[in-house]
From TrEMBL:
Cofactor: Mg(2+)
Matches recorded under SUPFAM superfamilies: Nudix
Organism: Undibacterium rugosum
CDD domains found in the cross-reference section: NUDIX_MutT_NudA_like
Name of this protein: 8-oxo-dGTP diphosphatase
Domain Nudix hydrolase: residue ranges: 9-136
Keywords assigned by UniProt, alphabetized: DNA damage, DNA repair, DNA replication, Hydrolase, Magnesium, Metal-binding, Mutator protein
Biological process per Gene Ontology, one example term: DNA replication
GO MF terms, alphabetically ordered: 8-oxo-7,8-dihydrodeoxyguanosine triphosphate pyrophosphatase activity; 8-oxo-7,8-dihydroguanosine triphosphate pyrophosphatase activity; 8-oxo-dGDP phosphatase activity; 8-oxo-GDP phosphatase activity; metal ion binding
InterPro entries attached to this UniProt entry: MutT-like (IPR047127), Nudix_hydrolase (IPR020476), NUDIX_hydrolase-like_dom_sf (IPR015797), NUDIX_hydrolase_CS (IPR020084), NUDIX_hydrolase_dom (IPR000086)
């Protein structure tokens, strides 16, 4: 069995956070050099460690990567995607409550976006943007 086929059989759980400001803007981060899909934009997050709760993984990753402490986050959706290097199961959370301002602790760029205009985006992120846009529209209408 090839390495890719083996990875495709065992999805890697990944906690992904969407920080959403009151105006609907969301935080996107650019994947740093040396990682697969280097330079692509994504919602921040990372792998769930063995025996780690998904929300705990999200909080840990945001503290390690961006210096932000997530106070509260709600599960939003789940997506499975097979990349050439890995099969991932993405667990998306939306957070409106956090402490701190994003810092580039891994040398990554980041940007607050209303209408997402950064490119290129990670393929698993693209289909979610229309649904996210509906949430942003609801916030702006309220």
């Amino acid at each position: 069995m090839s390495e890719i086929a083996a990875k495709a059989k065992r999805p890697v759980d990944v906690a992904v956070g969407i920080l959403m400001r009151p105006d609907g803007d969301v935080l996107l981060a650019q994947r740093p050099p040396g990682k697969p899909y280097e330079g692509y934009w994504e919602f921040p997050g990372g792998k769930v460690e063995a025996d780690e709760d998904i929300l705990a993984a999200l909080k840990r990753e945001f503290l390690e990567e961006l210096g932000i402490r997530i106070i509260d986050a709600q599960p939003w959706c789940g997506v499975e995607h097979v990349y050439p290097h890995a099969h991932v199961r993405l667990h998306f959370f939306i957070s409106h409550q956090w402490e701190g301002e994003p810092q580039s602790l891994e040398g990554q760029a980041f940007a607050w976006q209303g209408q997402v205009a950064v490119e290129p985006l990670l393929p698993a992120t693209i289909p979610l943007l229309s649904y996210l846009g509906l949430l942003q529209d609801d916030l702006q209408a309220a």
